[in-house]
Amino acid sequence: MRFSSAIRAFVPAFLLLLVFTSCEIEEQIDPNGPSINSVLNDASITELNLLVTGIEARMRNGFDTYVTASGTVARELYRFDADPRNTSDLLGKEDAVLDANTFYLTAPFGTRYRVIKNANTLLEALDNTDAVSATEADGYRGFANTIKALMLSQVLDLLNDNGVRVDVADPENLGPYLSKDAGYDAILALFDEARGQLNGSSFPFALSSGFAGYDTPATFALVNRALSARVATRAGRYAEALSRVEDSFLDLDGDLTAGPEHVYSTASGDLLNGLFKAPGQPGDQIVVHPRIIEGATDGDARRGKFRMTPAPYTLDGLTGNFEAALYASATAPIDIIRNEELVLIWAEANINTGDLDDGVTGINIVRNAAGIGDYDGDQTEADLLNELLYQRTYSLWGEGHQMFDLRRYGRLNSTFLPLDRAGDDVFTQFPIPLSEGE
Questions:
Q1: What pLDDT was estimated at residue 35?
Q2: How many CB atoms lie within 10 A of CB 169?
Q3: Which domains occur in the chain, in start order?
Q4: Torsion (CA) 364, 369, 373, 379 in degrees, nearest 10
Q5: Are 189 and 197 in contact (CB under 8 A)?
Q6: In the 8-state DSSP scheme, what is residue 399?
Q7: Mean of the pLDDT values across residues 202-228?
Q8: SS3 24
Q9: Each residue of 287-316: pLDDT tens digit?
């Protein structure tokens, strides 16, 4: 068997220590620091906390590619830059297919599993240390398993019917790829395991300012339920999604922007927001797909996510007149999940389980926040799902949702989506990376 480089190569000779000061997250190999073996045997609380910081820091890596690659496939955006694969492979130009060994797959895939490796290291270390109490150990476990489940869900988002490898604790003896349904079962079970561990636990570690308000076991458990509701929705398990979202930080009367975030800074060693692009730079830009502009409602405040370009941007036979204005700067935070998405999950779950009135209620919360008033169309299940998907398109534009929204309703195809050029194709999933070959 050939082992995954994304999983195996992250076992270093020395533990990668991550130093967290304010918003600064700096990664370095410490030649004077403890070896991986010393961390896995009798780790100190400082070493455990550094692993927590590393998990949170690495969650951000590769996320921009996850968003732009899936968004291009879904025809919600283009990535105009020097790499032709962004406008050829991802759009199926002239019989192009998705490459199993290139950045738009290997970057998000590899970074997700590196986070999982850090989480597994933390979990193993907890089994072999007396540095923390039982309730503190459960706090670490609940955090680590929640993030593991999130990372695995993002891999399954991309691979879909190709499944997901969940059992990666032993890099020399990896578990099999699970089917999509079995993958969802395992990921949701992991969220539930983490939720049980968080119950009655304590956090002897600090999270970044991006988790302000969600940095205790009780409040982090609300994030766990929110993320698991997203996964249940993508699995089409709507009764389960409804139960999970109602146990989250969902607030139908609350601030739609509330929720945990990835944070960025210009501090040495930290990351910048890779989805921010300077205005007016067609050579390195996220361009709004014309179908998104054409479908927008007059007066919709969400149109503020799009900025008209000084002149039309053209590349590889593609043209756009609007660029992304979703983030104000290179240090702007990116939402991990927020109340607006939870309201939409709640609405979708209600519609699919037969409570159309609550579905309309959720839709209207989002519509009114956008300044376009109550929904006044037909209220059949089919009509409400059309409206729900429309609202998700604009509320969650450029955040890594559209491909998976369209796919679960059978709309990720050329019947629903406009083809950009003659001969283009619409893909429904990414291949298993070449490095994963058996």
A1: 62
A2: 16
A3: 5-267+334-413 (1.25.40.390)
A4: -20
A5: no
A6: S
A7: 98
A8: strand
A9: 999 999 999 999 999 999 999 999 999 999
